[in-house]
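An example makes the point: we let one protein speak, the chain in one-letter code, the fold tokenised, and here it is:
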Amino acid sequence: MSPCLDVRPNLESDFVSSRDAMVPLSGKICVVTGAADGIGKAVAIALAEAGAIVYISGPLKVEGGNETLVPCLQNTVREAEAAGGICIPVECDHTSVDDMEHLFDRVRDEKYCQLDVLVNCAFSGEPVLKEKRNEPFWQASLELWDMASQAGMRSYYIASRRAASLMVPARRGVIINVSSMSGFKALFNTAYGINKAAVGVSFFPYVVQIIIMIGMEGTK
């Protein structure tokens, strides 16, 4: 992972004009993980509509199925384009370090090390966690913990680490972690609650960080 220097060309997108008032994030580069569905998808489309170029990660497409019914990045791209925005899909298994590294390598190489906003929203296993919500944690399988943590707090940490390597040298950037009220009181189960509490830990003083605590919110 090579250090970034300020070698970005003087792009026209950096110029602020009256036109930019309509697209307040014009010239900004964002990454939204877990953007194939739910909150991540909605955030990605909103950022794109506001003028940002948004890299989105998750399952790229559906093989042998109806992609309009199954979450995939292609749907997010289409809806962002319909809103006049740009989303760049990057297929990513958020439990894979290599996939996560590839996502941020692309941002670094394609956008001259610029990254203004990271929104961590990746998660997996929500149906299973809901199904096991009343099961005592000492009786639950350790697979439940792995499911909650691998594409949860672990992916948040990996993404934030790579994002900070771009943001800190540039002295700009914001990391937003989407968490849950389960971080205060287990709404589903202990494994879920611990993971949501963990992603609320601050990265101060290295980067500006915002923690968003979501209440009872369905994936759709």
Notes: The beta strands are 29-32, 53-58, 86-91, 117-120, 174-180, 208-214. The chain has a mean pLDDT of 82. The CA atoms of residues 49 and 85 lie 5 Å apart. The two ends are 36 Å apart (CA to CA).
